[in-house]
Amino acid sequence: MTSGDTGAGTGGGTARGLTALLTTAMAFSMLQLFLLGALGPRLVDGLGVSETVLGLTTTVGFGTAAVLSPVGGRLVDRVGARRALVALLVLAAVALGLIGAAPGPGLLLVAVALGGLPQALANPATNKAILASVPAARRGAVTGVKQSGVQLGAFVAGLPLAVAASVIGWRGAVWAAAGAALLAAAWARGALPADAARPAGRPASGAAPARRGGPVPWLAAFSLLLGAGIASVNTYLALFGSRSLGMGPTAAGALVAVLGVAGIAGRVGWSRAATPDRAAWLPGLLAGGAVGAALLLAAAVRIGPLVWVAAVAVGVFAVSGNAVSMVLVMQRSAPGRAGQDSALVAAGFFAGFAVGPPLFGLFAERGRYGQGWALVAVEFAAAAAVALVWAVRDRRARAKAPR
């Protein structure tokens, strides 16, 4: 196994503190988009946002993140993990504050675009911090926990913040989240060691060129297809529950929370299972399970209670696929390329998030959620095919490699 950075072991308490901080950073990096999904019914009614515009918010946010991710990866390799994480959390706070102040769709879209910046920094910065501070034997477990931070954000958006919105209004709930992000930025600045100074003009991390035949292009393509399906679920699950299944706004938001809890468990469990000898096979298997989850969503159109089972299955299978892909990146990255490789795979994931919801929105506006979930099943099936083809090629290449 190779890594992009050398790392020294950390004490138990220090390691737990680092894991908690990185998990929090991942949660805030995408919290705004989970909030838009969980508060979707309130935004559609209160701001006059249509179903199509609701999907467009995801497109704008993740489109920005996809474009900026390669630059973000190089930036993280250059400036270091602490500066990048503090910037991530401050930008997340600003974006959330603007969402809370938005008088209509225009400023809402601007705020979501700004929120693409912390997304672009999240995976490179947190992966680099792990490679610098966590022993190789523990990186898979720590990666799974910190990746579960994204689903922690889904839980927080779907339950406590959705409940808060019913008490203090949706704007108050979003502003509370913005204040929490600023507190997390102060935590990151005080908890992480200062970044090493880099001589001017020196290439970031002395980065090695990408390895031919490596997993990054395949994982990026897999992530694009997986992300398209996951983003559609994140964006429209609460609205589906409200409009098609007759749920109230709080109960519909709870669907996002259930998905988030299942995603936390799935990401931690599957990342621990992603040992170097079997990690290559897991993305395809998880995407295959995600196909079943999407079909359960389609069946929920007629059998409503299945939506809860489907939300759990999406978290356990689809959401976990992204965490395993990040474990693979850290296992296979060339020295000095951890940030850049993480960013390239994340760019594929974000591109999928940008593409998926607008396509789904075409069905949602017509109330054809069953057809929309069938499209998600096709996207997950294509992701499974890409991942399994690469796994077969990788197994053959490693069998031929000199030992």
Q: Helices and strands in order, then pairings?
A:
Layout lengths: L11 H27 L1 H7 L4 H29 L1 H21 L3 H10 L1 H18 L5 H20 L1 H32 L24 H28 L5 H25 L8 H19 L5 H27 L5 H27 L4 H32 L3
Please give a structural write-up.
- 80% of the residues lie in helices and 0% in strands.
- It has 403 residues and is mainly α.
- Helix 1 runs parallel beside helix 7.
- The radius of gyration is 20 Å and the shape is globular.
Helix-strand category = mainly alpha
Low-confidence stretches: 1-10, 199-208
Gyration radius, to the nearest Å?
A: 20 Å
CATH architecture call? Up-down Bundle
Query: What string gives the helices and strands in order?
Result: HHHHHHHHHHHHHH
Count of separate DSSP helical elements: 14
The portion of residues forming beta strands comes to: under 5%
| Percent of residues in helices | over 70%
**Spatial separation of the terminal alpha carbons:** 13 Å
The H-level CATH homologous superfamily, spelled out, is: MFS general substrate transporter like domains
Global morphology: globular
CATH classification class: Mainly Alpha
Q: What characterizes the major β-sheet?
A: none
Query: Could you tell me the mean pLDDT?
Result: 84
CATH overall fold name: Growth Hormone, Chain: A
Q: Give the strand tally.
A: 0
- Tell me the number of structural domains: 1
